[in-house]
Amino acid sequence: MSRVLRYVAAAAIGLFVASLILSLQGYSAGAFLEVLRMATIGSPYAFLDVLRWTTPLLLSGLAFLIAARVGYFNLGVEGQIYVGSLFSALISHLLPLPPVLAILAGIVAGIAGGVLWALPCAWLAKRWGVNEVVTTLMLNYVAVLLCTFFVKQFFLAKVAGGGTIQTITTDKIEANAELPVFTPFSGLNLGLLLALIVAAVAAFVLMRTRTGYELSAVGEGPRFSQFSGIPVHKRRFQAFLVSGAVAGLAGAIETQGVLHSFIAGSLDNMGFNGMLVSLVAMNNPIGLAASAFFFGILQNSQLVISQATTVSSYLVTVVSALFILAFAANPTRFLVDTWRARRER
Amino acid sequence: GESLNTSASSADSSAAAGGKSVLISSQPEGDAFGDLVFSGLQKLNGETGIEVKQIAGVQPSAYEQQVRAAVQQGYNPVVVLWDDLANVVTSLAPSFPDTNFMIVDSYIDPKLANVETVVIDPTQAAYLAGIYAGNATKTGTIGFVGGAEQPVIEKYRCGYLAGAEAAKPGVKLLTSYSGSFTDPTKGQQVANSQISQGADVLMHAANKSGLGVLQAAAAAKKTGIGVDFWQGDVAAGSVPWSALKDAGTGTYTAAKNATSGNFKSGIFTWGAQEGAELFDQRDLDGLPADLKPKMQTAIDDLKAGKITLNC
Amino acid sequence: MNGEFASIGALLLFVVVAGFQSATPIMFAATGGSFSAQVNVFNVALEALLLGSAFAAFLVADATTSVWLGLLAAMLTGTLLAALFAFLTVTLGANEIVIGFAMNIAVVGLTAVLLTTIFDSPGSYLSATAGKFPMLYSDIGWLAVLAVALVLLGHLHTFHTRAGLRMRAIGQDPAAALAAGLRVNSYKYRAVLMSGLLCGIGGAVLPLSGLQLFSVGMTAGIGFIAIAAVILADGRPLLAGAAALFFGFTSAIGIALQTYGFPNELVLSLPYVATVVALFVKAYVTRRRAAAAKAAQRERGQARILVNA
Amino acid sequence: MPDQQSPAVSYVELAGISKSFGDVRALDDVTVTAPQGRVTAIVGENGAGKSTLMKVLSGVVTPDRGTVRIGGVERHFRTTRDATLAGVGMVYQETALVAAMSVWENVVLGWEPGQRGILRRKHARRTVGELAERYSLPVPLDAHAGDLPVSIQQQVEILKVLYRNADVVILDEPTSVLTPQEREGLFAAMLNLQAEGKTLLFISHKLDEVLASAHHVTVMRHGRIVSSQRNDELDRRGLARSIVGRDIAPIDLGTRPERGATVLSVQHVELGALHEGPGIREASFEVARGEVVGVAGVSGSGQHELLQVISGLVAPDAGTVVLDGRTRKEVDSASDPAATLPALRKAGMSHIPADRNAVGTLRRRPLWFSALVGRLDDPEYCRRGVIRRPAARALAERIIREGGVKASGPDALPESLSGGNLQKFIVQRELLSDPVLLVAEEPTHGIDIGAARDLRQKLRDVAADGGAVLLASTDLDELLETCDRIIVVFDGRIVLDADRQDCTEESLGAALTGLSAVPA
Ligand SMILES: Nc1ncnc2c1ncn2[C@@H]1O[C@H](COP(=O)(O)OP(=O)(O)OP(=O)(O)O)[C@@H](O)[C@H]1O
Ligand SMILES: Nc1ncnc2c1ncn2[C@@H]1O[C@H](COP(=O)(O)OP(=O)(O)OP(=O)(O)O)[C@@H](O)[C@H]1O
Ligand SMILES: [Mg+2]
Ligand SMILES: [Mg+2]
């Protein structure tokens, strides 16, 4: 109950400040509410757009959450999504397949990409106790540079008519590999269903199964886990890789559902937003869906503001940040404590 | 206060003149090149009063939604900048036959009846910069700093190299990349590494990072060459030449045609022969007496189409 | 590509200059971050502190033509932003990562908006009036000397002052520190504010050293590099400073290598890869020693555990 | 017997103190006095309010009502710092040292000598050294506190209090983790303090030492004072009765059965000294059905490591451990605790770990979560990978009921339980699986006398039912009272392995300190 109150209060603060900012820009006091209305129920497609944004946020949030449950801070979700996106785009070119198979192949490839990029960090953490916060953060930068290099060298898109492409991107994926959209008027695609299924399965596993029990135990009490005969390092390693897999899945869904090619510099901040989604949900799998939906509304509102007003896009990001601050300025102790517990080890 | 001026549901697609036009670009506002292109639309607004708007700073994964929203809000033509958005337009345009689209500064031509591609070629301006560099270098080594190794940046480099070789056969060109378009310090360091290898004229194609290149050149008493618009004021006295990319006028010309019922699909190249400005008159006026005629010849040749650059 | 350095001397000189130049703001931020780390506050807002104070420095230096007033403003701004961070995390108990990231986003946006409002120049603004910090040699400013001095002072503070001892105690075991009668939160505040002050100086370096330029998001991730340095160093200022230098130098070496024809993306990723490799080597060396001793022990016989099947 | 003759002035006076935590009335109108230069003992059951009362005196807890007087002056402590300035210092039940800092740093922390913020390291270290010498508390000044045995850590805590010039020294259960020798050391130090005119308050569950050291004994029950008497007015039995509210029966050792089949055989086990502690050398012994075997050792001797090897937590470097070896199956990987542990549990091993907080339970998960230890292979609790919560909660409820645990239910968090109750929960959990071999490390640590007696009886019952028990304890009385055989570990070796009848406190004490090097 107090939790609900907390979130309501945070939303109120966020709304107030956002309205204040818009009114300082010469808009009416209710303008932000109007933006919210437009961004959610303003048109038949607005709500679909919110869900479209919820999809990758849910998955990247889940990716962070899974690692956090075992006490790892996977700040590399960002890079893992990116590599997943590349892999998913490439497989479509390397291995043309009939409809359903092509989609599956893209998804599997994306997952493989995410796992691949999580692997070095996971191994270094497991085998050598190397701090994953640093390695994952560093590998984000490397992912961007390396993917660019790779695409430029081997898979650069060809322009119809022999012109020059300006940005680093691959050719469009095969139509077979595209995730079907529900309507041409919104980017919402079948990925939402996939994401929901994955999130539901993950929530079930984390909260109801032996695996979830072991992961929680490993994350919160390494010595208790050892005492209980849980293979601590193995579980943490596995969770790290699954985290990477989910990130890779997010990359694949964005690629196959929306971008339809790998684009250098795309998917910016998707991983970090996912981290915020998870942290605002206090790493609770159930709260995660709500949190992702909330961030989805926020993200769609950002776009609507830029369409409907002349307010600076930077100001819009400030407004989102304020919402996040309002939601977080509250005892989200859980994660901090996990971090401390880890330091004490 | 002002209330919100649009609503997503009011999708009237009147293509008539006196409508409104929007520029969607992938760089956040304040991007100098995006502003340059938008200045073309603003000029149109000044002349005809049609409403113009710039939407900036969106992520690739939101492009499609932004373009779709622009169409639904009745903007016509919808102008987009660069390849990523061009690809989005390519896939969306068939669904919105009543809206005209302009793709600016891209070579992508989807060959659709409602899409026009406005090519603004940097190679000619870069060629002139090369002429300048070839003549100005004393060490025989010149430098080029790109923001990232991308095909479009290669076009600058290619034109630059062609000009330099034409002016001074056998000239040595150093090429480096700052890896970022927004980090002046990186640009400065990359330039310094070239300077320490003997480069004495440095051109950049690195947006804000390029400011650092010009600064480094000035600090080392070398010569810098500006890009995209006149940068003679960046490091006073040491940027005697800038390679302009006349995107504003190109966009203006195409958009004017589109809003006055003369929309033409296909590729529209805005180059020297079409009247694009490749340099700033101030720079030409300031050239030393021996160099000025050589430069003038190159300019005339470009305008006359006598020089073809294989870039 | 084709380059060769005029001499090995020129190459070394370039690397030293560029290395120090890149490392200077990171050293400030990393030393500041070390203080936070000592009291076990994970200061993810370093990037925001740097950027906010960079803007303040630029604004004031542009208006007053004095870099020193700019520096002062930066230190003030850094400290104020740090106070906000401390209030939200220490007092309200909010998650440090969320607050840190949200502040980073907010400060990028705010400085961008202010830049447009104040200078009417979106994106970036080149100041004609703001001065430049005095340079020691080439692009190495006197502030680089200050950075090194502060790293040393930070070390002294950590290990040779009362406050340092108390901060470390608080970081390692807040309960024990509380039991010893320390006012835990006030030291946390103190440490975070010190982070802010130092990031303030680091931020001022950015727009007032080479170009008198502020551009949106000009910190370009160096706050995160500083965080990496702090984690690498486990909150010890000397090591964090060394890590910052290491990072600056690898990136300078990367730039130099580019002109020898190495693909630029690979070369640009050098500092990041090098950081990971350095961490690995550190872990490898420590663990190898332990493992070797363990193996020697094992040679004495095979251990067996049998149970009733 | 302490000197009873010289006049005693009431130095500390606590009057009419009440304190509630939510619904729990921890202190109810408590009045206690403590004279200068004397030891006043506070005894009582777990949860009686002893620690809370002392925390009121040391400024940790602010009372709801009542007054605190020190040396006749009324004081209102809001922080521990206030109390420190008034000359009150407390050594807590759980030591509160910064593990990664040196001893001298820990001692001076918060009150460091120095000028203008600069720490005078040499001076500080010397001061601590002198203090240690004066009170005969030989601590290694430069060692990291975390590396020290608990007994030394406790001396550091005492030094901390003395360094702050305390006139009133409170010791909360200081002896529960000490070996007899270490306890002697502590009492010697306490005598020193008395001689210096300090006022000592001393909490303990061990009546013998209370009677041996305290001048006055105050008994608490349910937050109230039950009695407050001079030592010479007391006897052990009466004291026990007033604590528990009934007589305490001695435990039933049963009739010792014929030596049964071997349950545990440890042969030539070796462990290097790398495992964050001392090693084990050439350890061999056997435990038979029906036996309770005690394991004793001064901390740091390797006895803890030996039990960890037996319970599968640490892989031995060499040697063989056979559990209930009628048909011997080698565990897949002797070097991977994650593999050996479940196998050992399956074969009937149960383990009560020494650290109930970090090892025995998961602090922030409900009790039923911790109840599931070792039971996830049982389809009753986990079927097809899905945990059956109703069964798990029922299990936790059963443990709570049968173990006499004071807890609000299966959903209570371990951290909300008092130490003694958490210990009872763990013990009962391990007993519930009808162990063939029960490895019990310090099971009565911090448990009041009544409960401790019941617990020892339960260990005996395991043996009586045909199981075997390995009982590690620092309390020799406990070992002599409960065990059939006692093993003493010194310096990583088993130096004594003898039947209880052949052991005395003296012989054990000698073996513990390595004085009688008669190999087993
Ligand atoms: N995998 C699991 N198996 C069994 N119980 C679990 C598992 N994970 C969590 N629990 C415990 O079950 C209780 C009820 O859990 P619920 O499903 O509401 O999870 P929660 O507490 O919301 O989530 P969280 O695990 O994030 O704390 C919680 O106290 C939780 O500790
Ligand atoms: N901080 C607290 N919050 C809630 N309840 C508390 C707190 N501290 C103590 N209590 C409760 O007050 C009562 C007295 O606890 P206290 O720790 O004083 O017992 P004790 O006599 O020291 O017991 P033990 O012998 O187990 O150490 C117990 O019921 C305990 O659960
Ligand atoms: Mg107590
Ligand atoms: Mg107790």
TrEMBL record, chain A:
InterPro entries from the UniProt entry: ABC_transp_permease
UniProt KW keywords: Cell membrane, Membrane, Transmembrane, Transmembrane helix
Record's bilayer topology term: Multi-pass membrane protein
PANTHER family xref list: ABC TRANSPORTER, PERMEASE PROTEIN, GUANOSINE ABC TRANSPORTER PERMEASE PROTEIN NUPP
UniProt key word Cell membrane: yes
Principal subcellular localisation of the protein: membrane
Location(s) in or outside the cell: Cell membrane
Transmembrane residue ranges: 7-33, 53-72, 79-95, 101-125, 137-155, 188-207, 239-263, 275-298, 310-329
Protein name as annotated: ABC transporter permease
Tree of life domain: Bacteria
Automatic annotation (TrEMBL), chain C:
Localization per record: Cell membrane
Entry-linked InterPro entries: ABC_transp_permease
Coiled coil: none
Key words of the record: Cell membrane, Membrane, Transmembrane, Transmembrane helix
The keyword GTP-binding is assigned to this record: no
Bilayer-crossing regions: 6-29, 41-61, 67-90, 97-119, 139-159, 191-208, 214-232, 239-260, 266-285
Cell membrane is among the record's keywords: yes
Main location: membrane
Membrane topology: Multi-pass membrane protein
Name the record gives this protein: ABC transporter permease
Organism annotation: Paractinoplanes bogorensis
Record lineage: Bacteria, Bacillati, Actinomycetota, Actinomycetes, Micromonosporales
UniProtKB/TrEMBL annotation, chain D:
InterPro entries: AAA+_ATPase, ABC_carbohydrate_import_ATPase, ABC_transporter-like_ATP-bd, P-loop_NTPase
Stretches assigned to the ABC transporter domain: 12-247, 264-516
Cross-referenced Gene3D superfamilies: P-loop containing nucleotide triphosphate hydrolases
CDD domains per the UniProt record, alphabetical: ABC_Carb_Monos_I, ABC_Carb_Monos_II
Superkingdom of this protein's organism: Bacteria
One Pfam family here: ABC_tran
Ribosomal protein listed as a keyword: no
Alphabetical UniProt keywords: ATP-binding, Nucleotide-binding, Repeat, Transport
Molecular function via GO: ATP binding
Name the record gives this protein: ABC transporter ATP-binding protein
Origin species: Paractinoplanes bogorensis
